[in-house]
Structures are given as C-alpha cells and as structure tokens.
Design a protein that fits this description.
Domain Peptidase M12A: 1-69
Helix content: 10-25%
Number of strands: 0
GO molecular function, one term: metalloendopeptidase activity
Shape: globular
InterPro entries: MetalloPept_cat_dom_sf, Peptidase_M12A
Oligomer: single chain
Strand content: under 5%
Organism: Meloidogyne enterolobii (Root-knot nematode worm)
Protein name: Peptidase M12A domain-containing protein
C-alpha cells in the first residue's frame, strides 16, 4: 500500500504549536480499511483529527500571518 503522506522536516510553523484540529489534517483512520494510521500521543486530540466542519482558530491565524501582512481579520465561525 502506497502512503499518501510523508513527514516534512522543513515547514514554517509561524511560532504556532501543532494543530490537530486543522481542517487540513488527515483523518486518523484509512478510509478504505478503517484502521488507524495516525495515532496522537495525546489521546484527547485523536477525535479532532480530520474534522471538516470549520477551520480552526489556528488555521485562521496562520492564514492571517501568511496573507494579510499584519492586518487583523476576524473570522466568525457560524454553526
């Protein structure tokens, strides 16, 4: 089975900690087999991986840091 992802050692973090709740995070289990391929060392974050409902606060913050050039933009998440 070919892996869909690989580890990046040279990525910009923008002084932010890893975001398990990012909308860009892969789900923890392989969709075809249902077997967990990504296991968080912190169990409480396992269920937040792979969510596709809203962007996380850190997603919005990093978008602001990359594209808004020190302009504060507020994202309002409507549920």
């Amino acid at each position: 089975m070919k892996r869909q992802y690989h580890r990046l050692n040279n990525s910009k973090q923008f002084n932010q900690r890893y975001d398990y709740g990012s909308v860009m995070h892969y789900p923890p289990e392989d969709s075809s087999s249902g077997i967990f391929e990504i296991i968080s060392l912190m169990r409480e974050y396992q269920s937040t991986m792979g969510q596709r409902i809203d962007i996380s606060f850190k997603d919005a913050k990093i978008l602001n840091l990359v594209y808004c050039n020190n302009i504060n933009i507020i994202f309002i998440l409507i549920k």
